[in-house]
Amino acid sequence: MPKQTRETGLPQNARPVMQRAMWISNSQRLSFESTETTAHRLATSSGGWVERLGEDVIVSFKGEGAKAELLEGLQRWTNDTGWLPSRVFTRFLPTRNADRVSPELHQGDSALSWKTTVTEAGIRYGLDIAAGYSHGLFLDQRLNRARLQHLRPTRVLNTFAYTSSFSVAAALVGAETMSVDLSRKSLKRGEHNFKLNGLDSKKHRFVADDILELLPRLAVEGERFDAIVLDPPTFSRSGKGRRWRVVDDFEYLLAAALDVAMPKCSILLSTNCTKLDPAKLKRRARPCAKVRRLSADFTELGAPDDFPPGHGASTVWMTVG
Ligand SMILES: C[S@@+](CC[C@H](N)C(=O)[O-])C[C@H]1O[C@@H](n2cnc3c(N)ncnc32)[C@H](O)[C@@H]1O
Question: Ligand 1, closest atom to CA 186?
Fold first, then answer.
């Protein structure tokens, strides 16, 4: 049996046998719309996936066979449901980061801007389809953004914040937020997301820094948070060349985060690393809490139901006592 892989966009050693795409039903699409959610998966196969982003669709594929299969499936699905995208983009998912290329317009008006806006539970997020790394919103984190809102936190630290989607969700329920990312450009997109939702970004903090260096400084300065989002990349390199590998450095990150956690803090542990499933995240998190004489309770939400099992990030909420 081929090993099932989560989509990371990163190198995959084992290519699974191509499985046919699973498409959501039209009633699922309508149910997303009824909750003011216009960004969701339409289909997932072992060779790629199809996302609906507002009026547009992106077909992400690992090879030409998968691309053809997903485009044919999209044609059938739109015929069956009557929902027609304004534009269809295709995006190649290379096995090496160095081979990344911009998406291409497959169908639709080439004069329209590639910047667009989607909603998730009524929250507006700006996307840039031409942006290389990702368009700006990780759809598999939908349930975690909703839970963060549900927790009604007062002070949120969003590490590896990217376009600050978690911060926007928290700020809308009254939290003060600090969003930290190495990329100033991504944080600027985060500020734009605040503005799109009528939030004053000047009342929130956007810090362009290496979170691994910043966390100890925040602890010394007495900064404390009642919700912390830890959603690091699998690998990265900071501006100073420091190498990060989530499998090796997870405990260092969590320990440093615990030093800025208020009592009863909720911490989202999340990763796309295929070596760390939710059970392993919990197994590795427990000793970190124990060393600091804290209790740890865990809540697993699983992936949203437009993601088939085995797809989407591995995530667990940890509440420390
Ligand atoms: C997987 S994305 C995070 C996605 C984000 N949590 C979300 O849901 O939108 C990883 C982000 O981590 C940032 N990053 C990587 N290494 C970092 C570091 N050492 N310190 C701060 N940010 C880092 C990257 O710039 C990138 O924006």
Answer: 27
